Task: structure prediction
Amino acid sequence: MKPVLSLTDVWLRYDSHQPWVLREINIHIDEGDWVTIIGANGSGKSSFIRLMNGLLQPTKGEVIVCGMSASDPEKFIDIRKEVGMVFQNAENQIVGITVEEDTSFGLDNLGFPRDEIASRCQEVWNVLGLHDKQDSPPHLLSGGEKQKLAIAGVLVMQPRIILFDEPASMLDAKSAQQLYALMADLHQKGCTIIVVTQEVEDMFHGNRLVMMHEGGIRYDGSPLEAVKQSSIFQDCRLRPPFRTRMRDIAANWDMESWLESVE
Result:
């Protein structure tokens, strides 16, 4: 299967006098993957996904998105059609004065016919539960609704790949659960999902886990295989997931000593 995203020997730094933010990144992501990227603060994970839609350019190396070079200015518009991004703070990507205006903003800029814009917007609002909010000003929406609006603006573009940067960090538990249910539905329909998070428990939603540390990829593989290796999480300055911690406790538990202590 031909990958939809490829980063080959990619290095990144923002200034020649500063240290490398990313170093020697090599990764290929297939269509239909759900990749969870985790790492501590400063590990480079947010910069990593910003390379995937041309928001950042590598200092060295090559980024190929759906067969197009992300360094080619003539391909930027085509790449943004294929790759949508939902930022951590939804308010940063809300630009319309109503839900309808914000959702249709990208399609309007590309000159889509009004009837197709209306059809796409209505379909997305129905999926996200925003069908009765189309005339509402975004500042009157709840935090969860603002996040849904940000997602609506991405979904109407019908991208092949959606990047989520800390999507649940500003949501309550119920809204976060609804968001991941939506992401699962998109994935089942063939969308490639890439999620950046610091919450290690979120890694079990996807089929592939990438762990980053100090600008490099420390692990790339199955989440279930990573669970067996608590040292990987510790090396990346992350708390291992609950099931890993419980396994380690059980492995080191001396039942006889415990029984003696409670007698």
User: Anything to note?
Assistant: The first helix runs from residue 45 to 50. The radius of gyration is 21 Å. The chain has a mean pLDDT of 87. The chain has one domain: 3-253.
